[in-house]
Amino acid sequence: MIVRVSREKMAEHRETIISSAAKRFRERGFEGISVADLMKEAELTHGGFYGHFESKEELIALAAERALRDSTAKWEKILDGAKSDPLQALADTYLSQRHCDNPGTGCIFPALGSEISRQPESVRNVVTQGLQRFVGLLGRAIKGKSPAQRRRKAIVAYASMIGGMLLARSTSDPVLCREILRTVSESLSSDGVSSNLTAK
Amino acid sequence: MIVRVSREKMAEHRETIISSAAKRFRERGFEGISVADLMKEAELTHGGFYGHFESKEELIALAAERALRDSTAKWEKILDGAKSDPLQALADTYLSQRHCDNPGTGCIFPALGSEISRQPESVRNVVTQGLQRFVGLLGRAIKGKSPAQRRRKAIVAYASMIGGMLLARSTSDPVLCREILRTVSESLSSDGVSSNLTAK
DNA sequence: ATTATCTATAGATCTATAGATAATGC
DNA sequence: ATTATCTATAGATCTATAGATAATGC
Q1: Where are the domains of chain B?
Q2: Burial (Cβ within 10 Å: 0-12, 13-18, ≥19) of residue B51
Q3: Chain A nearest-CA residue for B164
Q4: Which CATH architecture group holds B7-186?
Q5: Would you say the pTM of this structure is higher than 0.70?
Q6: Nearest nucleotide (C1') to the CA of residue A54?
Q7: To 10 degrees, the CA torsion angle through A64, A70, A72, A73?
Q8: Strand D positions with any atom < 7 Å from protein CB?
Q9: Distance CA B106, CA B26 (A)
Q10: Which tens digit of pLDDT belongs to each residue from B45-79?
């Protein structure tokens, strides 16, 4: 049965497709879920996809943007809600077992970074903007003499969190996985790396 | 024309296929090159593949192992050949524009990490072993009070290098790309983060 | 009348296998 | 006789499009 819906409902469908893609892509990779299966999740049929988007590539860019915006919102809440050490609060969440086990709702870089580097510029432009927002946010929450130094600290902290999560998810050894998450998290404590690490 | 070759030659073919896969997978992803195209590169035909390997998955594990072993050899040379600061010597090479532009011969984690986390355990076991070797190597080359602390420093340093390369390759902005590579590299200087960063 | 969705399919691509062929290695 | 490689193809899957349908919105 063919059912044409209102414009409002169509806009909802579009949002559903993008949200679903943002989650599934992070879980399975850009090539890990087909247009047909994404449409099935939205309870629509395959062919209808091309009324919403020009191509799968366009959806990839939109889904990446969605994932980045959702993460930005989460970060803002965490950084603003932190009592003493916003970076440590973020690191605790970012490097949690929960985040490790749930790539579909997590940071795009450990989930899709390797594939993003091979995407066309349309996708990498969106990602670049999101990355700049993250660095800006984090830089404002970090201690440091100058804005330039806070920015440098933010870049290094973010890189270590992403690399830590990537390694934790790559290993098949749960002990090593936990060791990596904990070690990187503790290295970001404002007490300084050595004091915090030697304390444990 | 069908040409059966000697056992020695067959072993060479096998090596060629694995080496080619180790490079192409890092360049294009595990799904970015087909069995047929890999065999074409080795100047063999598609069907012959299954005389060498049971499946593409088996080749993925072997190619990952190859990539990890090649990187281990490179790291050993760099760490052993360094005059004063082995970690900085490694970071200079790892976070170079050259490495950024050539994923096919570089570290497997920024090139394939997101996909590795979705691979079956056969692949992730191989990767885990390679990762443990890297951490061991790096820990021996790093300054620190105890072996445990050297290991922690090694994990954090490696995570930041991987995350830095992943971000550098994800951005479409060459200025941001260079900023990330330089900033993470300088953070690994043994002078300490702040002194080195404020000096520039 | 317009258009959001559906049905059906074209065309490309991919992994894996079956059976044939011809050179190796006993 | 054994076997490394080749030819040919089965079977699955994927993106994208063409044309039909029926509800919206003027």
Answers
A1: 7-186
A2: exposed
A3: A159
A4: Orthogonal Bundle (1.10)
A5: yes
A6: D16
A7: 170
A8: 3-9, 13-25
A9: 8
A10: 999 999 999 999 999 999 999 999 999 999 999 99
